[in-house]
Amino acid sequence: MAKRLETRVAIVGAGPAGLLLGQLLYRAGIDNLVLERRPMARVLARIRAGVLEEGTVRLLEEAGVADRLHREGLVHRGIEIAFEGERHRVDFEALTGRRVVVYGQTEVTKDLFAARQAAGLPILDEAADVLPVDLESERPKVLFRREGESCELACEVVAGCDGFHGVCRSRIPAERLRTFERIYPFGWLGILARARPVSEELIYAFSERGFALFSMRSPTVSRLYVQCDPNDPVEAWPDERVYDELAARIGPEVAARLERAPSIEKSVTQMRSFVAEPMRWGRLVLAGDAAHIVPPTGAKGLNLAAADVGLLAPALVALLKENDPRPLERYSETALARVWKAERFSWWMTSLLHKFPEGDPFRDRLQRAELDHLFGSTAQQTALAEQYVGLPLARA
Ligand code: APR
Ligand code: PHB
To answer: Tens of pLDDT along 314-332?
Structure first.
């Protein structure tokens, strides 16, 4: 006999998408339960990107979890792009009147988790064999195993916030699911180090040796990346090699300020673009990485997940409190319109700033021309800035 549980919205995945949705629903008075495959301590330790759009900050405020973010987040008014020994600033504030906040996704997840705990709301972590069923009915269920017991969670909606490797997306029948993917011929090797950032703003660098990014988590912690082979094991990148490449790619002036502190985290990320359509199937909805992946150039991953949730939460409130299914019926189409724009921007930033290993001289010349155009054109810088700070959030 399976153990029976009940909630209104079953949320699969306790990443930022799942936890933010849970918090917004809770504040709207809608009962929800989060199922997570991994131990929560592991989820909270993951290091990811760290740039928040204003719209994301607003949603975190609505969720009641923005206090620490306002205290510790670093407000950035622009970025720099380094190329051939020169740095070119893109001034977000002058071009768009807007800014971004540098605050790690790890911290966002911790704040959301703390708020959920403070509200006494359940997260069932280490849930195995999670399987949403009966998604075309109005009473779907999620089957899973936990602590040796079979469980059956009855609900009204299943929210698939279970990331790229999750189970929910695969519950959409194959003949109705369409996926789009591009795998790039490079990855990012990232390190975290207790070292002062080389600059107050982020520096994206393009050189013949490849891309490099100088980011940060705080005034004393740097987050640094170099373009690498996606199949490189981290052992191929001892700290000295990482710092040598960072220095070579940025040039001597900035390199002189690079503090070579030992790395406290190191990982390789494959660069990928991916979109699944539709983002709703019956009473299953997808949000965040479960539905789409962007390469990290431009830092759209977390912001896109938050934007999905910002659209989904009111659509669920309309359905479950006002009995109005229409916003949820429009969710996929509305979300995808924005998703594809962020996909396009992330693909463009990635193509602009990476060395493509296949050695296509025509492509290389176009890339130089595009950089040159960007540095000289206010219109092009405005286009970059308005997408980097975030396109407007849609309403369902
Ligand atoms: N059952 C339960 N939980 C699952 C399952 C499953 N079958 N599969 C995956 N999960 C959990 C994962 O362990 C993870 O904690 O779902 C969670 C998904 O979280 P994320 O991968 O962080 O995805 P999301 O919440 O959409 O956040 C998007 O994360 O990857 C970055 O760039 C991305 O910044 C963006 C953000
Ligand atoms: C980061 O700080 O981790 C970061 C910042 C900007 C990006 C990607 C990652 O484009």
So the answer is: 999 999 999 999 999 999 9
Name the packing angle between helices 301-322 and 54-62 (round to 10°).
40
Ligand nearest to the CA of 81: 2
For residue 85, what pLDDT is reported? 86
d(Cα 1, Cα 186) in Å, to the nearest integer? 49
Q: CATH number for the 3-77+99-181+272-361 domain, one of 3.50.50.60, 3.30.1050.10, 3.40.980.10, 3.90.850.10? A: 3.50.50.60
Distance of alpha carbon 80 from alpha carbon 90, whole angstroms: 6
Q: Do residues 281 and 135 make contact, with C-beta atoms less than 8 angstroms apart? A: yes
Q: State whether the beta carbon of 162 lies less than 6 angstroms from ligand 1.
A: yes
Q: What pLDDT score does 301 carry? A: 97
pLDDT at site 6: 98
Concatenate the DSSP letters of all residues of 100-158 into one string: EEE--HHHHHHHHHHHHHHTT--EE-S-EEEEEE-TTSSS-EEEEEETTEEEEEE-SEE
Please state the atom number of ligand 2 nearest to the C-alpha of residue 48.
3
**Rg of the Cα atoms in the chain:** 21
| Closest ligand to Cα 224 | 2
Cβ atoms 157, 319 nearer than 8 A: yes
Residues (pLDDT < 70) of the chain are: none
Alpha helices (H) along 7-75 = 16-27, 40-45, 54-62, 67-72
Which among 38, 289, 294 is the best mutation to test ligand 1's pocket, defined by most ligand atoms within 8 Å of the CB?
Answer: 289
Distance (Å) from CA 192 to ligand 1 centroid:
21
Q: pLDDT tens for residues 126-154?
A: 999 999 999 999 999 999 999 999 999 99
123 lines ligand 1 (CB under 6 A): no
Residue 133 alpha carbon to ligand 2 centre in Å = 37
Which pLDDT does position 266 carry in this prediction?
Answer: 97
Q: Which of 141, 225, 295, 300 is catalytic?
A: 300
Specify the amino acid at residue 248. Answer: A
CA distances from 69 to 41, 79, 101 (A): 21, 20, 9
Going by C-alpha positions, the residue among 88, 69, 271 that lies closest to residue 181 is: 271
Confirm or reject: Cβ of 13 under 6 Å from ligand 1.
yes
